[in-house]
Amino acid sequence: MTRPDVGPLKVMGVLNATRDSFWPGSRFAATEHAIAAGEEMFASGAWAVDVGGESTRPGADPVSAEEELDRVGPIIAALAKRGRVSVDTRHAEVAEAAVRLGASIVNDVSGTLHQVAARLGAGYVGMHSTAVPVLAGTQPAYDDVVAEVSTHLLDVAAAAESTELWIDPGIGFGKSVEDNLRLLRGLPELCALGVPVLLGVSRKSFLGAVTGRAVDDRLAASLALIAPAWSAGVDVIRVHDVPQTRDTIAVLEALWPA
Q1: Can you give the pLDDT of all 258 residues of the chain as single tens digits?
Q2: What does pTM read for this prediction?
Q3: What is the largest CA-CA distance in the chain?
Q4: I want to staple 86 with a disulfide (CB 3.0 to 4.6 A). Which of 105, 116, 186, 240 is the partner?
Q5: Is 81 a catalytic residue?
Q6: Of the listed 84, 90, 204, 218, which one is catalytic?
């Protein structure tokens, strides 16, 4: 197994300033606890920490931009002094305020904030999704999920004007278990589009469908996907478990050095 000459696989830590994210272990309702968790991610080797204040799991209740910013603002301001911070949002107001507070990446689950990120001079992650939050019980149909997601992401990349840009296939967002698996098998095709790829698979429900395990017990399944992501040439992997992911990447790099 080899990795394309695209540089090291970077790790982005997931930090949820929410009470209803899909994994209780990633919820930090108290600001001081969230800041401490983010600092620990940086200490464990995170390239960036992604701070979100609104759950986008299927069926989640929307949060106003004001409440979202109240949740993430103090955390971003504190962590930006420690390392690189991304804001996970679909609201332009939150993105603008977060960048003023020190965030340098807009992680846009809606795929619509590319102009905002460019105007702010921030990096931009554009994700594929048919709707955010995904409505519980809805399931879009794809004729060829890899081709359709690739076309959408190329359109997002063409519209974006940020000097730093990543595309995200949106694993788990309006996709069946088989759709998600097909996208993961198609990672080499996605990485060949010529735009850096960010991938988020950590502890997601399709892993529960494959393994039969609850979200608390999906660490091993999540780590199993690091190797195909690494060998395909994914640029950033977005995870809840930073030290375990860093260890997995270290072993891959030791076995198959560039």
Answers
A1: 889 999 999 999 999 887 655 555 556 668 898 999 999 999 999 999 999 988 776 666 778 889 999 999 999 999 999 999 999 999 999 999 999 999 999 999 888 899 999 999 999 999 998 765 555 556 788 999 999 999 999 999 999 989 899 999 999 988 999 999 999 999 999 999 999 999 999 999 999 999 999 999 999 999 999 999 999 999 999 999 999 999 999 999 999 987
A2: 0.93
A3: 48
A4: 105
A5: no
A6: 204
Residue in 84, 218, 238, 246 annotated catalytic:
238
Q: What is the 3-state secondary structure (H, E, C) of the chain?
A: CCCCCCCCCEEEEEEECCCCCCCHHHECCCHHHHHHHHHHHHHCCCCEEEEECCCCCCCCCCCCHHHHHHHHHHHHHHHCCCCCEEEEECCHHHHHHHHHHCCCEEEECCCCCHHHHHHHCCEEEEECCCCCCCCCCCCCCCCCHHHHHHHHHHHHHHHCCCCCEEEECCCCCCCCHHHHHHHHHCHHHHHCCCCCEEEECCCCHHHHHHHCCCHHHCHHHHHHCHHHHHHHCCCEEEECCHHHHHHHHHHHHHHCCC
The yes/no answer on whether domain 10-255 falls in CATH 3.20.20.20 is yes
| Domain coordinates in residue numbering, the chain | 10-255
